[in-house]
Design goal:
The protein is built from 17 helices and 19 strands. It is α/β, with parallel strands linked by helices. It is globular, with a radius of gyration of 22 Å. The N terminus is likely disordered.
């Protein structure tokens, strides 16, 4: 079912559209794209005519339950179909699902629903072409080489966790080595070293999301911190040839092209779990889609306080990803209006993005029996001074209900660019940047940020390991690790009483990330099946 064409076949190509046809088969066959070959061709031949698609970021309200989404993928697919019905060359880039955490598809995967579904839904929900398994194998290969180095006395401890795509409860309780609370690799609640993490949360997954080229990927893999010798960092390149790891990854670097039931092209690659990882598709897949289409909808995981925040703070600010021309923030009627104490979160998430210069369209994804709530929803949006919402039962009606509602969104794509406030955090020391992130994304000022005793020791160790890896820690991007169902420690408190707790900092040197555990909600990188 899959196909890949390599870079040496592209030289006679005279246009990007011809280049695309060379790299892919028919959309209905769910083909793969040689991402690095495609991007290197664009870089080496700047005269090739290419598009520079505008990005629409699709994110969501903060869900009431961590195990429940708001319908971002369903909304994304319906939007693509509706835009194309309006004559716009639109596509979307989706995150690849993690099969294990969804209990083998029983929760739903990443293929939408009803009339807003992928034609290859089963393929998408059940692991595509084995990319997750390749990532799992590749990081476990690095760990196995680190364990051999441990046996030979070349390091004192292994810090890189093993990986599993199935979140077995037993794996959360196996202690291979113990650590001191707050140290790198130690669970903040128990002090026991994390020995196994779920595939989407592992550092190799983050490297796949952020790498722009084969050389970039090799350098990042080599820079991963795998262990320590007398407190000094030991890097992956010290224990294994990064080329071997790249071989183990195979074509996991390559996006897959799928299609909606209506025949719209959709790209899927990398990046689930915005609560404990990045929660965005690969930057390479976004760049490929932008070269081929006029509008690219990028799906960001969980709420605007999670995946959208990471797209802006990690992808845009640190990696040159395109600034969104607009955003669509999806909610369910029950999430927005069903709990009075949490009703503040939907307008907060929208206004947070508007403040950064990204105009936001509210989108209410109705369930059966909620059609009579539309007047109430529109009135609530108007009362909050939000833009005119897009409302529809996207499972039942698909894109049909959205086609006449897109004028406002199309107007946003044609507007003059608004200056962004994102640059206010550039060239700011890391801890100050963390405080600004918490203030902007969670609405909690510096004086209400709480530090556990475990935070500073873990931060100091992460800083020392970064120095050993040749990294200026102020150049690290911040990756917030927290529950997807809460923005602050307690979202039910009045605004002037809400706090955010800092629990632990962990270095992912290869990905260029400082992972910071936030809020008092328990979050583990080997979660329960939901």
């Amino acid at each position: 079912m899959s196909s890949s064409v390599f870079a040496d076949s592209i030289h006679p190509i005279s246009s990007v559209s011809e280049l695309a046809s060379c790299f892919t088969c028919d959309y209905g066959k769910a083909s793969k794209i040689d991402a690095f070959g495609f991007l290197s061709a664009l870089a080496e031949r700047p005269s090739l005519p290419r598009k520079k698609g505008a990005v629409i970021l699709v994110t969501a309200d903060t869900p009431l339950l961590a195990s429940r989404g708001e319908g971002k993928t369903t909304a994304t697919l319906a939007l693509v179909d509706a835009l194309r019905a309006r004559g716009v060359d639109a596509t979307a880039v989706l995150r690849q699902p993690s099969m294990g955490i969804t209990a083998a598809g029983s929760k739903g995967g990443a293929s939408g629903g009803g009339k807003s579904s992928l034609k290859q839904a089963q393929l998408a929900d059940w692991g595509l072409f084995g990319e997750m398994a390749r990532i799992e194998t590749a990081q476990n290969l690095i760990v196995s080489r680190a364990e051999r180095a441990l046996e030979e006395g070349e390091l004192d401890e292994v810090l890189l966790p093993r990986v599993s795509e199935i979140p077995s409860k037993a794996l959360r309780h196996i202690a291979v080595a113990t650590g001191v609370k707050g140290t790198v690799g130690a669970d903040v609640e128990t002090g026991v070293a994390e020995t196994c993490v779920l595939t989407p949360t592992c550092e190799l997954m983050q490297i796949l999301v952020l790498s722009h080229s084969r050389e970039d990927a090799l350098e990042r893999i080599g820079r991963m911190v795998v262990g320590a010798k007398q407190g000094a960092a030991i890097l992956a390149r010290d224990v294994v040839d990064p080329e071997r790891v790249l071989t183990a990854l195979g074509d996991a670097f390559n996006p897959t092209i799928l299609e909606t039931l209506n025949g719209s092209p959709i790209y899927m690659h990398c990046g689930p779990f915005a609560n404990v990882s990045l929660g965005i598709p690969s930057l390479s897949s976004i760049e490929i889609a932008r070269a081929l289409h006029d509008v690219v909808i990028v799906e960001a995981g969980y709420g605007a306080d999670a995946g959208a925040e990471k797209y802006l703070d990690v992808a845009v600010r640190r990696h040159g990803a395109p600034m969104p021309s607009a955003a669509v923030v999806v909610t369910r009627a029950t999430t927005w209006l069903g709990d009075g104490e949490l009703r503040w979160r939907f307008p907060f998430n929208i206004n947070r993005l508007e403040k950064d210069g990204i105009p936001c369209m509210p989108l209410v994804n109705l369930w059966d029996g909620e059609d009579d709530r539309v007047p109430t929803l529109r009135a609530a949006s108007q009362e909050l001074d939000l833009r005119e919402p897009i409302v529809g039962n996207l499972f039942r009606d698909g894109s049909e209900s959205l086609i006449p509602q897109l004028d406002g969104l199309l107007d946003l794509l044609n507007r003059d660019e608004v200056p962004s406030t994102l640059s206010t955090r550039d060239d700011v020391p890391l801890l100050k940047r963390l405080a600004l992130l918490i203030a902007d994304s969670y609405g909690v000022p510096t004086e209400r940020i709480i530090e556990r005793k475990s935070f500073r020791p873990s931060l100091e160790q992460a800083c020392a390991l970064a120095a050993d890896a040749g990294i200026d820690w102020n150049e690290l991007a911040i990756n917030a690790i927290k529950s997807p169902a809460t923005i602050t420690d307690d979202d039910r408190l009045p605004q002037d009483q809400r706090t955010v707790t800092l629990k632990k900092a962990t270095l992912h040197a290869g990905a260029g990330l400082l992972c910071v555990n936030l809020t008092t909600s328990l979050t583990t990188s080997m979660p329960k099946i939901v």
